Amino acid sequence: MRVLALALGAMLQVGVVAATYGADINLTIVNVVSPQDVKIWEPTSITAKKGDTVMLQLVNRHADEHGFEIAAFNVKEVVAGEKTANVKFTADKAGIFPIKCQLHPAHVVGQLVVLE
Question: Is the distance from CB of 101 to CB of 66 less than 8 angstroms?
Fold first, then answer.
């Protein structure tokens, strides 16, 4: 009976993975000031599955422009002060990819984690 329950659980997990593969990920990323007085995009970590379409709304709440770059996916956007921009890409490779502000290299932003 326990083996049957484990097998059923494993089949359900495979079904969930198959059902969510190639899904749409929609997130709002907001430029905020950290407790250390550094401007960063929040959340700093984004997770997707390989094959997902990722749509990010970038909200810059500061007067000066800020960049948002995920070089591995050719995402490179400059968001004007107090404006919003959208980026869309397909997470077509698995791995951990840095997210940075290409305009202000000292601003270490975070990472995109794409699961297999």
Answer: yes
pLDDT of residue 10 exceeding 80, the answer is no
Q: Which pair of structure tokens corresponds to residue 1? A: 């009976």
Q: Identify whether the C-beta of residue 32 lies closer than 8 Å to the C-beta of residue 40.
A: yes
Find tokens 């969510």 and name the residue.
20
108 in Cβ contact with 116 (< 8 Å): no
Q: What tokens appear for 74 in the block?
A: 């050719």
CA angle 105, 41, 53 (to 5 degrees): 105
Cβ contacts of 64 within 8 Å, gap of 6 or more? 81
pTM above the 0.85 mark?
no
C-beta neighbour count of 43 within 10 angstroms: 13
State how far the Cα of 77 lies from the Cα of 69, in Å rounded to an integer.
6
C-alpha R_g of the chain:
18
